[in-house]
Amino acid sequence: MSKLNVNIDHVATLRQQRLGLYPSVLEAAKVVVASGADGITMHLREDRRHVQDRDVFEVSRKVRTKLNLEMAVYPEIIGIALKVKPEWSTLVPEKRQELTTEGGLDCVKGALKVGRAVEKLKKAGIIVSLFIDPDLKQVRQAKFLGADLIELHTGTYADAKTKAAEDREFFKLRDAAGFASTLKLGINAGHGLNYFNMARMREIKEIEEFSIGHSIISRAVFAGLERAVKEMLKLTR
Length: 237
Ligand code: PXP
Known about the structure:
The chain is α/β, with parallel strands linked by helices. The protein has 10 helices and 8 strands. The protein has an 8-stranded parallel beta barrel, surrounded by 7 helices. Bound molecules: pyridoxine-5'-phosphate (PXP).
């Protein structure tokens, strides 16, 4: 059975719309853990568009779970990770203009920078995962750079517009996971996974944990909207 790690960035996205106090990221982390999830992910972006530094410190101090801090290879953010000391970290590429992470890290071109970041984080006792495309060259390089885990980018699979394109991406993910397991890398996967495209992913038995955010927070709107309206009706009538 694969594990589920829930990315709570978009609770912070909603809060940052008004720069207020709610919805609380800490509360969200507690609910996610109480609901049985195996861990929490927060992406501390350089532009701080959703999760803020204080969220990361607060969740890591007050919520007993496996915290995965996701970050780009920026010295400032790596420095924060070294202070927070999450159980595990995931290095991702980051562009200011993107809506969300657009693809995997290039561990071949960025070998020097990525390798240094892996070394620093591991020295501090933090498990390191590299978010990469399902490409055998990247898998091999992730191992070479000392990563403990890889997270396979499932975004292209999730966005596939035709059955043939979906099949192509699925087979790349399956082959990359198979290869990574022969290298004794831990294997996670995520990005764009939702209530419709998850079933097929479970066929790849090597994937130990899925990292899912946007679809869960989106589903929570409709799982909770009726109750939210009824509670306000009680106050208005
Ligand atoms: N994994 C990584 C590395 C990500 O960057 C993200 C998005 O922040 C996710 C998983 C979760 O993706 P989604 O929000 O589409 O489920």
